[in-house]
Amino acid sequence: MTAAVRRGTTPPPYSIDLVLLAPREGALHVLIESDGRTAHLPWGAPKSGEALLTSSRQLAKRTAGTEPGWMEQLHAFGDPLKHPAAAPVSIAFVGVVSAAATEGRLGDKARWVPMASAGLSGRHAAILAAAVETLRTRLEYAPIAFKLLPSTFTLSELQGMYELLLGWPLHKASFRRSLQAAYLVEPTDEWRSEGRGRPAQLYRFSPRKRRQGRRGVRFDFLGG
Amino acid sequence: MTAAVRRGTTPPPYSIDLVLLAPREGALHVLIESDGRTAHLPWGAPKSGEALLTSSRQLAKRTAGTEPGWMEQLHAFGDPLKHPAAAPVSIAFVGVVSAAATEGRLGDKARWVPMASAGLSGRHAAILAAAVETLRTRLEYAPIAFKLLPSTFTLSELQGMYELLLGWPLHKASFRRSLQAAYLVEPTDEWRSEGRGRPAQLYRFSPRKRRQGRRGVRFDFLGG
DNA sequence: GACTTTAGTTTCAGTTGGCTACTAATTGCC
DNA sequence: GGCAATTAGTAGCCAACTGAAACTAAAGTC
Predict the structure, then answer these.
(1) Are the C-beta atoms of residues B18 and B58 closer than 8 Å to each other?
(2) What local confidence, expressed as pLDDT, does residue A2 receive?
(3) How near does any CA of chain B get to the CA of A218, in Å?
């Protein structure tokens, strides 16, 4: 028995459900809306004639008070059926919001909570899991981590952002070597002293063209 | 002016559109339906209460006469608007069918055509492009190529299948080395003599568990 | 028997990636 | 001032991986 059914409203043929993620206080947070005791992801009924991505951006603005630095559609979820609007199908999106932008005016009932205590169930739990998975794979294809940092940043901050998003630690020397080889950042002539320790040089995102490699096949991830 | 609008029928809120791909005669083929002069992908209106994947499987069976060896949802497409059923949204699926299975009884107006001469336009052209892209990335995560071969096969056949699906040549020694390292196949004691040349040993797909590696980040694919 | 064709292996060199260990520059504390 | 602690950044080693070329092996063709 879902909310929409209880209310007696006709469920829309599909809804747009949004996973907004943000790095806050060293942990990945997700924006949820609370309806009394139950938590759910922000969702909206589609407006006819409006592009899906546009609807999702509007939804983000309405609930988080800001537009995501990066957003992408996951796919359409039909299972499990448990959904706050009783929509048979949810078209799900993931987006990221920088820590600074989480200070924006939130929508009614919306708040940022740490991933671990999102308290979702049913379809929304599945969507959240898929969202994090997709975000992590997209880190290698889109400059998502850079969008979550100020325009200049230290390499330690960048590495920290990657670690927070991925959820596991990275090796400092290797991280910097790969970054160097990819010509993605360029040093500024500024340095930042952050309390203790040697000051760090500030960098800016400044990708240059490189030849695209990659030929062989990897079988490593191919489970049975 | 689309077909559904011309016919005066009410378009469904969303349709399920299917890209079926198959290796035939050394080239990747796609299943299209022809409506007089215009070609389009197989599509169907959703049945309420039916899971999306189930609907898509039914659609495959109806049009290709067989169920795909592998199938996955792409995502929901809203743009471009041009669609044979005038559906505002298409939930798209990709599936693959082995060459042998393309001999099944095809649906009305359906036929296999080489990718290059699919002759699609509008939303279906976008869906086809996305389908091939997704298939190629999934080759590293799902045993798709193996599903398209008989239960025993030579390593040259396997490599040929990968090359056909990927669309570019692979290096023989490297291919076999990677395969070896992944413990994915095991040799049978049979050999096949195919006209000229040394007979090839037959292998079967027989994946064993391996430790999952992967720690660092790759920046190689991260364009500006 | 020599040539061609396909299968399968070996070797080599260049690249990558993780690890340890180092140097450098700053703050805090005595 | 001087030394420990802390953070930034680099250097070198080694094992693993990859692409290319060159090799051996086994069949058919002429």
Answers:
(1) no
(2) 47
(3) 6
